[in-house]
Each structure stands twice: as structure tokens, then as C-alpha cells.
Design a protein that fits this description.
By secondary structure, the chain is an alpha/beta fold. It has helices spanning 67-84, 90-97, 104-122, 126-130, 149-162, 177-187, 206-209, 229-238, 252-260, 277-290, 303-312, 361-367, and strands at residues 4-23, 26-41, 47-54, 136-138, 140-143, 166-170, 193-196, 220-221, 243-245, 266-269, 294-296, 346-348, 368-375, 380-382. It starts with a strand and ends with a strand. The chain binds N-succinyl methionine and magnesium ion.
Length: 383
């Protein structure tokens, strides 16, 4: 059933991290997040609100998008088109915006808000909408680069004690072999373990990265720059550890090409990076058909994105643990009433109508740094 967008609210929130998170592209101590609320009216005029979370970081360091840019493109380009399109449902969002290039994270946030409203109106959970059959998913944790190996091992031990079933370690040149060896030694040979370079290496680093083979990692994530597909294919032939792509995969078409070229032995699926959950499902389906294992990535989401990711990760092709950790991995307080937790290393797939969260309005208001509202005529009002 299609509905009309009555009003949109863009809300920025500031969420301090419980500890700094360092990757090969920089260190973060807090998260500046853009949330989108869309009020949809059905044919009878009743209004349902839906929420989306834009995963763009504050700087264009992970990908070209950044949160101020995402807000700008939503207000000035994406929303005017979406509102002019008439009654819509979630599946119409991407096609309606397709003539505007790029900005997958901004587009994904809009699709997500429409999807949440649509599912709430239908009384259906996201997991049921997707046809997910699992009610529990294994939880992995992403561990940042640390200044010393002792600090790193203390952090990893803490996550092992929390019950995480898989460790992912951020690496970069100068912080890789020795750290991987130390972590493998700490967690033992049987704990699933993988690394993520966030594009920090070059084609000539093949023999260096092959030194990781002896540690029996699940995968090496995005070792080379995002546009170097052939480089990843060559690396996959040179290194025994499977090569997994993250930043390089921005659409189902591009993913099919990377698989065909032998560059993508495992896929990290992040809905924001690929323009939304519906494209994420298409990539999942493609990878299942091609025999490529997939797992769900994370972008330090609040309880909104974390709930939706947990439902996505319950699809059958997600055969590896994702970066869907407890909310407390990053945040002391979440903006939802029932933050994601882990029990025996697993996260419960949300089953309530919509994407699977309810906002804690007091917490949300307390972390809000700005709010604007956009009506059907495109008038922007600061709240
Ligand atoms: O949400 O658990 C999470 C973070 C997982 O490492 C993570 N994400 O490249 O996969 C990745 C990074 C991108 C964000 S780094 C600030
Ligand atoms: Mg990654």
C-alpha cells in the first residue's frame, strides 16, 4: 500500500563513544548522527511515523559521504523529488531517486524511514517482511587499533568475557602481524578471528599480507583502495586467507562484477553503503546464488540501525557473524527503550512491528543538537 509523505524531520544527535575507536583512517571519540523521521499518511489520512538512521560519518573518510553533506543533499535534492513523486512505498524510494548520482547513505536513510513507517502501519516486523527464519544471530565485535599490544589484549579479553563469538581487529601497516599473532595467542586457535584494513595497503603488499595466513583468519576485509578491484583479485590469488570487500561494494551490479573477477571471496553487506536495505537484500540473494558467504557490517549505529541490521542478518545467506554488537560496545546510553544486548554471544532478532525499536524520547531529546522540519511544500523550519 502506498502512502503520502506529510512531513519530514531531520534530527542531529551527538553520541559520545565509551572509548575511542581507531581505524586506519582515523580515530573517533563521538558520533554525530543524522536521524530521519518521516510521517506517512495513508488513504484515510491517518499518520504513521517511521525513523531512519544515516550512517555517514562526520568526515568523508570511510566513503565520500559525510553527515553535513548527507543532510544537505536530503533537504535540497532527495526530498524534493521524493515528495513530488506522490504516494510511495519503500520499494519506490530508490527508483525515484536513481537519477541523482551517489549519496547511498542519504538515500538509505530515507528508504529506511519509509520502510519503518510502512511496516508499523502493517503491524509487521522487519524480520517477517524479509522472510528471516532465525530468531537469534551470532554477535561479532570490531576492535580498534591500540597504541600498545598490552592495551589491545586487555580490550580483546574484555570482549571475550562479554561473550562475543568473533573478533575483528582493525589493522594498518605497522600494526598488523605482531598484533594479530598476539590476539590469536590470547583467544586460542578456535575463536573466529578476522581483520579489517579499511583500504590501508597497496598491491605490492601481497607477500606481507600472506604472512597473516598462518593465523587462520576468517578473512581480510578491504585491504586495498575501494576502486582497486583487479588488485583485490590478484591479492586473492596470492594470499590464502579469503579476501572480503566492504568499501568496494556499493551496488548489486558492482558486487556481481567483483565476484566474477575473483576479487570478492566474502562480502560485507552494509545497507547504508549500498543505498538501503532493499539493495542489501539483492546483494544477499546474489551472493547466495554465487556461493559467496556474507555477513552484516556495522557503522556504529544507534538502536535504530542496530535493530534493522539484526533483522537483515537473520537471512539465511548471512553465514558469518556480523558486526552487530551490543549497544554498550559503543554507547553508555542508547536512544531506544530496548537496546541490543548479547546473551551467550547472540543477539535476539527484534520481532516488534517496524524495524524493531521504540525510541526513548527523553534520551533522544537529551542528545539532540539540532532539528529541522520539512513540510509537503518543501518549507524548512528550525525546531
Ligand atoms: O558498528 O561495530 C560497528 C563498527 C564496525 O568496524 C566497523 N565498521 O570498515 O567495517 C568498517 C567499519 C566502518 C566504520 S569505522 C568508523
Ligand atoms: Mg570494514
Amino acid at each position: 500500500m502506498t502512502s503520502t509523505i506529510e512531513r519530514v524531520e531531520l534530527r542531529r544527535i551527538a553520541m559520545p563513544l565509551v572509548s575511542p575507536f581507531r581505524t586506519s583512517f582515523g580515530s573517533q571519540t563521538d558520533r554525530d548522527i543524522l536521524l530521519v523521521r518521516i510521517d506517512l499518511a495513508d488513504a484515510s489520512g491517518s499518520i504513521v511515523e517511521g525513523w531512519g538512521e544515516c550512517v555517514a560519518l562526520s568526515e568523508p573518510s570511510y566513503s565520500p559521504e559525510y553527515v553535513d553533506g548527507a543532510q544537505h543533499v536530503i533537504v535540497h535534492h532527495l526530498l524534493p523529488r521524493l515528495m513530488a513523486a506522490g504516494p510511495i512505498e519503500a520499494a519506490d524510494v530508490a527508483p525515484t531517486l536513481a537519477k541523482l548520482h551517489g549519496h547511498p547513505m542519504a538515500k538509505a536513510a530515507l528508504e529506511m524511514a519509509v520502510l519503518d513507517a510502512q511496516l508499523r502501519a502493517a503491524g509487521q516486523s522487519f524480520a517477517a517482511f524479509l522472510g528471516a527464519q532465525r530468531t537469534l544471530i551470532p554477535s561479532g565485535v570490531s576492535v580498534g587499533i591500540h597504541d600498545s599490544t598490552d592495551e589491545l589484549l586487555a580490550a580483546v579479553q574484555g570482549y571475550v568475557d562479554d561473550g562475543y563469538v568473533r573478533i575483528k581487529l582493525k589493522i594498518e601497516p605497522g600494526s598488523d602481524i605482531e598484533q594479530v599473532a598476539a590476539v590469536r595467542d590470547l583467544i586460542g586457535p578456535d575463536t573466529p578471528f578476522q581483520v579489517d584494513a579499511n583500504t590501508a595497503y597497496r598491491r605490492t603488499d601481497g607477500s606481507h599480507l600472506a604472512r597473516l595466513d598462518e593465523f587462520h583468519l576468517l578473512l581480510i576485509e578491504q585491504p586495498l583502495p575501494e576502486d582497486d578491484i583487479i588488485g583485490h583479485a590478484r591479492l586473492a590469488a596470492e594470499v590464502e586467507t579469503p579476501i572480503c570487500l566492504d568499501e568496494s561494494l556499493v551496488s548489486a551490479t558492482g558486487t556481481a562484477d567483483a565476484i566474477e573477477l575473483g576479487a570478492c571471496e566474502i562480502a560485507n553487506i552494509k545497507p547504508g553503503r549500498v543505498g538501503g536495505y532493499l539493495e542489501a537484500v539483492r546483494i544477499h540473494d546474489l551472493c547466495v546464488a554465487k556461493g559467496i558467504p556474507v555477513w552484516c557490517g556495522g557503522m556504529l549505529e544507534t538502536g535504530i540501525g542496530r535493530a534493522a541490521n539484526a533483522a537483515l542478518a537473520a537471512l539465511p545467506g548471512f553465514t558469518l557473524p556480523g558486526d552487530i554488537s551490543a549497544s554498550t560496545r559503543f554507547y553508555a546510553r542508547d536512544i531506544v527503550t530496548d537496546p541490543i544486548t548479547i546473551t551467550n554471544g547472540h543477539v535476539t532478532v527484534p520481532a516488534t512491528a517496524g524495524l524493531g525499536f521504540d525510541l526513548d524520547c527523553d534520551v533522544l531529546d537529551s542528545v539532540t543538537t539540532s532539528r529541522i522540519s520539512i513540510d509537503r511544500r518543501g518549507t524548512v523550519t528550525e525546531l
